[in-house]
Amino acid sequence: MLWNWLGPNGLRGVPTVGPTFPVLAYLSGLRYTKYARETLLAGYAKYAYTTGVFKVSLPDQWLVIVAGPKQLEELKKFGDDEVSLYGGIDELMAARHILGADVVNNPYHLRLIQTKLTRNLSDFHGVMKDEMWSAFDDCIGAPTEWRSLPALKTMLWVVSRTTNRVVVGLPLCRNTEFLTVATDFTLDVSQARFVVNMFPPSLKPVVAKLVNRVPSRLKKAYDLVGPTVEALRAEAEQETALTGTWDDKPNTLLAALVEEAVKYGYSDLKTVMSLLVVEFTALHTTAMSFTHALYYLAADPSLAIPLREEVEAVSQEENGDLGSKTAASKLKRIDSFLREAQRLNGPNSTSMWRKTLKPITFSTGITIPAGVFLSAAATATQLDGNHYENPDMFDPWRFVDANARSFATTSPEYITFGQGKHACPGRHFAAYEMKLMLAYIVHNFDVKFAPGAEGVRPPNKWIGNTILPDPAAHVLFKKRAKT
Ligand code: HEM
């Protein structure tokens, strides 16, 4: 930090929120893990329309925050030879220490999400709906009395099953042990990176060895998925030897990962690691974002009425099939509700994580040297009164208007999914899944918070940049008496 601050290519020209003197800055970095919201909002208010960048202290380094529409546009346009997304993710997650350098250097699995899931999303609508309905049935059932369930945990389970129907397919997507490994993997990575990122770069590898549970989780995952991977590989090799291609492969992301492994000679263990990284990107992000929305609904159950009207009208138009290729695009209120909940509470208060590969200069004249971790101020941007009327208010119908942007659309005022060529490739998948979940809930249940907690959305928990919907809060569900 001292070098970054004082060094010849240092960050002295970038204004700081908090102290700059090294020891105090370190303490401020520790403080940031609890007070990121206040720090980011203060920095945004002061610098978004002046310097367009400011820095905050993390325990291990400075984080340069990019703020304001002009600078966000500039950040979007820097080339991959100037700023690196994977370098940014590496800094954010301490990825090379926790997941291994290979995952950072060759993220082929992330590319497959784009080609396999996003381009063919409507092919998966039907199976995702079937799996989701069955998951809801198993998790919530059809209670005739109010049933209290831990909201985040329950939604994570529904997301995990639905996502894995497409990622690994049946029967694995219903295997409780596998789903537990897939969801716990994210917690392992998050906990390890939290500790590792308290230390300077030279100590990170040593600390990672002490706290990293990923190797044992990978082994457990291999025990569960390995036989499927091995069988798929044998099939792929046999088919490819006979016909040169593997045409009748299962329609899952895992099969695509195996196909890539056969093509490039990757090991089965690497395939399983890639699978876990996909689970990492897809499950908790979606479940957290959805739970944020569910808390608004439970705090004000009257909001279910207009949502329900819409779901019922669309269901009728689609002959009772909400999983049809066209149904989701007609759910405008549902879409707006989710976009608005995420505007106020994305799972992460920053996005567009980058590491500078060479010096970059913003139009304000500020140069950021190579090797610096930077990120965009997502929540603060989405609370900017220049972008939104009554920005702090939850207005579920804010984006219903025909000209309004849909949930998965990125824009300079809405960057929870990032923007530009690295904008989240899973966002259409996540948006579809979440729309279907909300449609199912309002169609089938009444929801509310328990007496005593009624009418109040439980406060979020901020851990550094992460915005967690209260993980302990329960929501009450009751089967809706349909008219
Ligand atoms: C509400 C849920 C989600 C949120 C808020 C979210 C957010 C983000 C953000 C902010 C980025 C970085 C964008 C940038 O740097 O410009 C990102 C990247 C990424 N996300 Fe998501 N994401 C979500 C769900 C998903 C899902 C469901 C998947 C997979 C199915 C996924 C896969 C990815 C991948 C692969 C990348 C890396 C992009 C690249 O390689 O260029 N995400 N996501």
From TrEMBL:
Its cofactor is heme. Keywords: Heme, Iron, Metal-binding, Monooxygenase, Oxidoreductase. Heme binds at C424. InterPro entries: Cyt_P450, Cyt_P450_CS, Cyt_P450_E_grp-IV, Cyt_P450_sf. GO terms for molecular function: heme binding; iron ion binding; monooxygenase activity; oxidoreductase activity, acting on paired donors, with incorporation or reduction of molecular oxygen. The keyword Transmembrane does not apply. PANTHER family: CYTOCHROME P450, P450, PUTATIVE (EUROFUNG)-RELATED. Belongs to the cytochrome P450 family. This is Cytochrome P450-dit2.
